[in-house]
Write a structure and sequence with these properties.
By secondary structure, this protein is mainly alpha-helical. Among the domains are: 93 residues, no CATH class; 138 residues. 69% of the residues lie in helices and 0% in strands. Helix 7 packs antiparallel against helix 8 and helix 9 packs antiparallel against helix 10.
Length: 363
């Protein structure tokens, strides 16, 4: 479905950094005294804390909270053992019920791997009450409040806190933009066009900020949700908004109509550049339950083709170029297992839409 200030850095970012060091506890003691900014210790591929080393430390001291937290991450991120990781966080909580990090890690795993959003929310609420300076805690708390409870206004407040704590938190801007989109849909239902547009513009501002601060290397705890990063998803969200704006201006302002349709084409082109292929998605080993396998490269050609139908210059040439790609791709499913056809080529999928649009526009 992406830790600022010194305290948060010590709890999360430093732990992730120190996970690569041979002496985890010694590294953490040092990082407590230093920032991970200009003073960051250079990483080395030689320095790694293995599961075996952590097991030895914990065997010698079953109350070694630092090693338990480190082992939970190793189990989860390196071996996909999310149940074992949850057990380690629960051991930490039993030893120290004030460990915000343990609640945060457990909440992430419950949300992404188990879709147990109710329990994840309880964990994130507890984590935020214990650490009020961690941007990512408020980020996931806000998004889950909006996504699972439809409490969009409360979600915005949490995302605002996250961004105030870390003004360069790219994923927080992305989540806030999505919440504003959800609010815009409410005003669409109420036929309040001006308020809907206001929220769409605000959402696009957040998506642009998310792109500005985007980094290819994201927080490891979110890689199961975004194994290919989320840059393509930012472009997709902004493209969808620009398309809606372009269509809405069709009758009232031809200049703005064309401006936003052109922006739509640009953003869908960027989506196509960064989105994973079907083969890349299918090669993922045991993807998280919350991973969306439908956001693949070929779908971008359907969406860009749809946008091209609203342009004037070389409209048919551009439209058919994109729809033809989807049409040819869809024919490949004849030689694929039927399970893939059901997964990607169902009746209202983007692939089916592009396949049908090719026949309508280009034959």
């Amino acid at each position: 479905m992406p830790f600022s200030n010194l305290e948060a850095r010590t709890n999360m970012e430093a732990a992730e950094f120190c996970l690569q060091a041979k002496d985890f506890s010694g590294c953490m003691e040092l990082m407590d005294k230093k920032s991970l900014g200009n003073d960051q210790i250079k990483d080395s591929s030689e320095n790694s804390t293995s599961l075996e080393e952590l097991n030895k430390k914990i065997k010698n001291d079953r109350k070694d909270i630092v090693s338990l937290l480190a082992r939970s991450k190793v189990k989860y991120l390196k071996f996909g053992d999310y149940l074992g990781a949850i057990n380690d966080t629960e051991d930490v909580i039993n030893l120290d019920s004030s460990s915000s990090e343990a609640y945060f890690i457990r909440g992430v795993i419950k949300a992404i791997e188990l879709e147990d959003f109710e329990q994840a929310l309880l964990d994130f609420n507890r984590a935020s009450s214990l650490n009020k300076n961690n941007s990512n805690i408020y980020m996931v708390l806000g998004y889950l409040k909006s996504w699972t409870l439809s409490k969009h206004d409360e979600g915005l407040l949490e995302l605002n806190r996250a961004i105030n704590l870390d003004p360069k938190n790219s994923l927080a801007y992305f989540f806030r933009g999505m919440i504003k989109n959800s609010l815009a849909e409410k005003y669409l239902d109420k036929e309040n066009d001006s308020k809907e547009k206001e929220l769409i513009f605000a959402a696009n501002d957040d998506f642009s900020k998310s792109l500005e601060y985007y980094q290819d290397t994201i927080n490891p705890l979110f890689t199961r949700l975004y194994p290919f990063g989320y840059k393509h998803l930012i472009f997709l969200r902004r493209a969808n908004n620009n398309f809606d704006l372009g269509v809405s201006f069709y009758k009232e302002d031809k200049g703005k109509h064309q401006e936003y349709i052109n922006k739509t084409v640009e953003d869908y082109s960027s989506y196509i550049e960064f989105a994973p292929t079907l083969d890349q998605v299918e090669k993922l080993e045991s993807p998280a339950k919350t991973f969306d396998h439908n956001q693949i490269k070929i779908n971008g050609h359907t969406w860009r083709g749809n946008a091209y139908t609203w342009t004037k210059k070389s409209r048919r040439k551009n439209v058919c170029s994109d729809y033809r790609k989807v049409y040819k791709f869809s024919k490949k499913f004849d030689d694929m297992p039927y399970s893939l056809f059901e997964k990607y080529h169902y009746s209202d999928s983007a692939i089916m839409e592009g396949f049908l649009n090719y026949g309508e526009w280009c034959r």
